[in-house]
From TrEMBL:
InterPro entries: Bact_solute-bd_prot1, SBP. This is Sugar ABC transporter substrate-binding protein. Pfam families: SBP_bac_8. Signal peptide: none annotated.
Amino acid sequence: MTSILSAATLLAAACGGSGGPESSDGRIELTIGTFGEFGYEGLYAEYERLHPNITITPHKTGQGGPYHEALFTKLGAGSGLDDVMAVEEGHLSDVLAKSSRFHDLADLGPADVKPDRWLDWKYQAGLDKQGKLVGYGTDIGPLAMCYRKDLFQQAGLPTDPQEVKSLFESWDSYFEAGDRFVRESGGTAWFDSAAQLFNAMQNQLQTGFFDRSDTLVVESNPAIKQNWDKVTAAVERGQSAGLVAFSNEWNSGFKSSAFATKTCPSWMLGVIEEQAGPEHAGQWAVTDAFPGGGGNWGGSYLTVPTQSEHPEEAAALAAWLTAPEQQIKAFKAKGVFPSQVQALESPELLAATNDYFGGVKDGELFATQARKVGHAQYKGPGDGKIQENAVAPALQAVEQGASPDEGWRQFVDASAQIAR
């Protein structure tokens, strides 16, 4: 979860830089930059106990946007980065485009850290086009579907997590169920935001906004237009609540029952519980089904910039933090879902339950969903900006009355501007 940045946090982030030189007593200070919640706070002290010569100074920023803006500013300046820098998957393509500024962790890191530590698609996404490992994978956000059981029941739809799977088998079945729900519920929206659906559909494609030569393919990849047509047609049929994700109105929509279904990466369960509040406990459910198969939304990587004065020690810290044992501890501390194969098989994770969602074994459910993600889609420089600054505004325009064709042209033109 994000929080409003305090002045002290901003000052710490502004002053943060690569670790200082080794002290006279042989101790080494390592700095690490993160944002949001990684579940690492208790792990730092443990690492220091295991490595008496290491002192860890964390620089934690509340929100990912300002954090990544500062990261790229410092990267361009050639100074000021921490020894270990976290990078969110939405910004990873821009880091991979500047991979010469980061160490190859396959060469620098501990020899026992092998690719099979991670799910294959998570590991592959951390490689640049030359096969350089720029980041060790941390968490992931495997996708399932959340829904309001009480609203489903009122509309005559099935409510049991096993019975609703057929509704979410494909995007066609999902939108067909949405038509029935809107009709039977008297006009309640089926989903929260068109952009939320489109981004999930986009990430399932073999080729995204860019091909591997970094050529923009928004107009030349017919699958993108097909997804656009499906989502905007559903908008025109009244299925979207038209809420901008993470806005105040979107937050309030959970409490006011403004929509019945929600694309649900693992971390979204905590968002729903916080925003919907205790009065809706037990009314939300989650099922291990997602239209079109598997998908992922979220997750990060730990990188070691070439600016670091202690790169080997920094790589060792990053490797330890992303080991399965530590990822289980982070999951228990903050609910961040692990990307490591061994962690996904942990009895602790598989036995985890969520009372708010009716006691569902959410650890087991999302471990199943994580294995349904088939490939790491290549994302060219500017991919995240296209999602945020081209897709979302264009779909919002359709939700506010623009035609799908008008929205599509806005999306195409804005994407071209970003890709220049």
